[in-house]
Amino acid sequence: MRSKSFVALMLFALGTNYAAAQSAQVVTMDFCDDPAAAFDVVWARGRDAHLTVFLARSRNSLVSSDPSKHFQDASTFYVSAHGHCGAVGPLSGADFAALFKSNKNNAPVAVALNSCEAAKVPNGPLSLLAKKYPGAGAGQTLVGTLTGPVHSGLLQPPPGMKVSAIEDAQYLDGGTSTGGAIVQRLMEDWGKKKYPNSTMAYKDYCATVVMPKFTDGRTFNRFVQEVTADFGSAYLDLINTNSGGVAMYKCGGAIACK
First-to-last CA distance in the chain? Predict the structure, then answer.
C-alpha cells in the first residue's frame, strides 16, 4: 500500500452534523487499489443515504455516479483517496484544489479531506483548497469547516469498546494497529478472489469494468455492495484492532487555516 493507511477514511466535521444538506463524496482513480475506498462510501452513506459519489478522473474531469446530481449543488464534501502532503490520489494537491474549485464556485459548508498528510503545512492539500475560497484575513477561508489528517486517518472504535458496524467507528489522525495479518489477507483476496459472475478478481474487475461505467451508477453501487458482502467482516475486524488516534486538524470559519 502507499502512504495512505489502509484504513484511512474520511472524517466529517468533528462534533457537527451536516447530514441535512446535500452531500457529495469524491474518490479518485486509486479507488481500485484496495477495498478501503469502497468502505469509505459505506461509511459516508451511513451519515447521508442520499450522498452522491463523484470520481476525479483527471485534473480536468470530475464525473458523477448520478448524472442528475451536480457537484455545484452540494454543501458538504467527503474526500477519500491515497495521498501525501503533495497529492490527493494521483492528482497533485494544487491540481485537486483547482478541480474542486472549478466544479464548486461558492464556498462549501464543510470539506473532510481525508487523504494522508492533507493537513501538513505549508501548502498541503487542505491549505491549498482553503486558499481557493479566501476570506478577509490571513489564513481565513470562506469554507465553513475543513478537516484532515496531519499524519494518517485511522478508523477506530471508541476507547475501550468494539464496533459492530463500520458506521459506528470514529475517524482519527494517527494511532496504532495490530491488524497487519488482516491487512495482508484482505489485500491478497482483493487481488485474487473472483468478483461474482466474473472471471476477474475484485481489483481487476474494479479497474476494467466499474471505473469505465462509473457514470451509470448501478455498476458502481453493486460493486460497493459486493465488496461489503465479501470483505466487510474482515474489514470490521481490522477496525477493531486500531486505537490511539487524535482529533483531525480542523480550520475554517473563525479558525484560520495554516
Answer: 29
